[in-house]
Design goal:
With about 190 residues, this protein is mainly beta. It contains 1 helix and 12 strands.
């Protein structure tokens, strides 16, 4: 397999700034600003240890930071951490976060090393979204990438191929098939 992608912590704030400005439709250029001040979010500020794998902003304006060792919710002042809790089905499936998506229905999707979670903003709990894929012995059910298309379908790249989740949560699978014309063999890590 491929090593987990991680970003230096110094890039977190820069990426969050650029993402937020892009999401708000800003039309200025960072290079045109006379003074640019950067700040860092570090583990001493409460950020989970491990490399940062994904960053998004949800519909409420909060920043979510996925790391190799947990999920972080940043409100601009403090960081709240979320981890897998053994035996708790309302926690993350796994601490290794691969991908995050805030969709047009205001759902927060979390792709982990062990499958897919949805976050409930009201209860601050996670539910498990069953992709209906059985992991062969010794193979993980990792969700590497999440993408929403213009029709509101959520596409999930995983170790078995590609899954489309329709608006009614109907699942359609695109997997390697040696006989029929299909996607390539192996994991889907980018969409």
């Amino acid at each position: 397999g491929y090593p987990a992608m991680s970003f230096p912590r110094e890039l977190i704030v820069v990426a969050m700034f650029l993402f937020v400005m892009g999401a708000k439709g800003a039309t200025f250029k960072l290079a045109d600003q006379p003074i640019v001040i950067f700040d860092r979010i570090k583990t001493t500020d409460g950020l989970s240890p491990g490399g940062v794998t994904s960053i998004i902003q949800d519909h409420l304006g909060f920043i979510w930071i996925g790391t190799q060792e947990g999920l972080n919710h940043y409100d601009g002042y403090r960081i709240e951490n979320y981890y897998h809790e053994k035996g708790d089905t309302k926690s993350l499936l796994n601490d290794n976060i691969w991908s995050l998506l805030s969709d047009s229905s205001n759902r927060l999707w979390i792709g982990t090393d062990s499958g897919l979670n949805l976050y409930n903003h009201d209860s601050k709990e996670f539910s498990r979204f069953d992709l209906g894929l059985e992991s062969p012995v010794g193979q993980r059910n990792a969700v590497f990438v999440l993408f929403e298309d213009n029709d509101g379908n959520v596409w999930v790249g995983n170790g078995f191929g590609l899954t489309r989740i329709g608006l009614d949560d109907e699942l359609k699978y695109y997997q390697y098939d040696i006989i029929n014309n299909s996607i390539g063999k192996g994991s889907v890590r980018a969409i």
